[in-house]
Amino acid sequence: MKTEIQLKSIGRHLREIRKEKGYSSAEIFAYENSLNRVSYWRIENGQNFTMKMLLKILDIHGMSLEEFFSSMASK
To answer: How far apart are CA 54 and CA 52, in angstroms?
Structure first.
């Protein structure tokens, strides 16, 4: 149960970052960054994902894991 809450929190934060970068649609963000659209949608919706995929998304945003989680904690 706790894991599900954490995954949803990570997904929400990724959604916020995407929107801050000017992408109103997860589908457009995924397409423009060569990500699988369904996989990316699942991540934003709190479904299981790999660390490799998270690192790839953070690289697109120009963020480290440390920056991502510290910005998540400050919200």
So the answer is: 5
pLDDT digit string, tens, across residues 13-33: 999 999 999 999 999 999 999
Structure tokens at 65: 């894991």
Angstrom distance (rounded) from CA 44 to CA 15: 6
Angle, in degrees to the nearest 10, between helices 65-73 and 2-20: 100
Rounded CA separation 75/67 (Å): 13
CATH code for the domain defined by 2-73 = 1.10.260.40
Residue extents of the structural domains in the chain: 2-73
